[in-house]
Write a structure and sequence with these properties.
Structural class: mainly alpha
Low-confidence stretches: none
Strand content: under 5%
Mean pLDDT: 91
Number of helices: 12
Radius of gyration: 16 Å
Length: about 220
């Protein structure tokens, strides 16, 4: 399989991996006044990218490598995501991604992965599943981690546009500016041992946990 074409398909907004329903806590933060205007949004997304890099990129990289086994990495991710909203969203996105890839690419390695997750009754969290899928689709380890970061950034900007915090063109400009930070963040965290993962944005985590109590909401997380 051609890695470039696989990458483009996975990052296409039309790919049905379930991310469209999630704002990663942005909606709750915005409603509670913690995100104000474009500058506040930029600061929020930058913090979220830092959290993604330090907390999830090592999980993606370890799942890609297959060491430790996926069931152990998945269990670690489950214990790391203490916020019930984030935990629920991670499981939903991971399972949606795995199902979409199994039905789309018809690769034996992906089908075997899906069968293993189902047979072992794993939680199927997004980060470990993403890493394992990247390996199954023969994407390089660094490409898989970069793609994970890109989707985190793109998802945050897309959520902001749908919430009306910024317009589409302003959102694209913001994505372009913040994208300059992403490769360095991946570089710093891709080789971190799993015991070094950390929560670097505790306020964002607390705010995301209030998502279910919002009076009205567009997203489920």
């Amino acid at each position: 399989m051609d890695a470039d074409w696989i990458t483009w398909q996975l990052c296409d907004s039309a790919f049905p991996a379930g991310a469209f329903a999630h704002s990663a806590g942005l909606e709750a933060a915005w409603q509670q006044g913690e995100v104000a205007g474009a500058q506040g949004l930029a600061e929020w997304i930058a913090a979220a990218l830092g959290q993604t890099a330090r907390g999830l990129i090592p999980i993606v990289a370890s799942a890609w490598a297959g060491e430790p086994p996926l069931n152990e990495v998945d269990a670690l991710c489950d214990s790391f995501l203490l916020n019930h909203v984030a935990n629920r969203a991670s499981r939903a996105q991971g399972q949606a991604l795995l199902m979409a890839c199994a039905k789309t690419f018809e690769a034996d390695a992906v089908r075997h992965l899906a069968d293993s997750v189902r047979a072992e009754r794993l939680s199927g969290h997004y980060a470990p599943v993403f890493g394992a899928v990247g390996r199954a689709l023969e994407l390089p380890r660094r490409r898989t981690c970069d793609l994970f970061m890109f989707l985190a950034l793109r998802g945050a900007v897309s959520s902001a546009v749908r919430l009306g915090i910024v317009g589409p063109l302003q959102g694209q400009n913001l994505q372009h500016r913040l994208a300059r930070q992403a490769p360095a963040a991946v570089e710093q965290c891709i080789d971190l041992p799993l015991e070094s993962i950390a929560q670097t944005a505790p306020l964002a985590d607390l705010l995301q946990g209030t998502q279910d109590r919002l009076y009205s909401r567009l997203f489920v997380s």
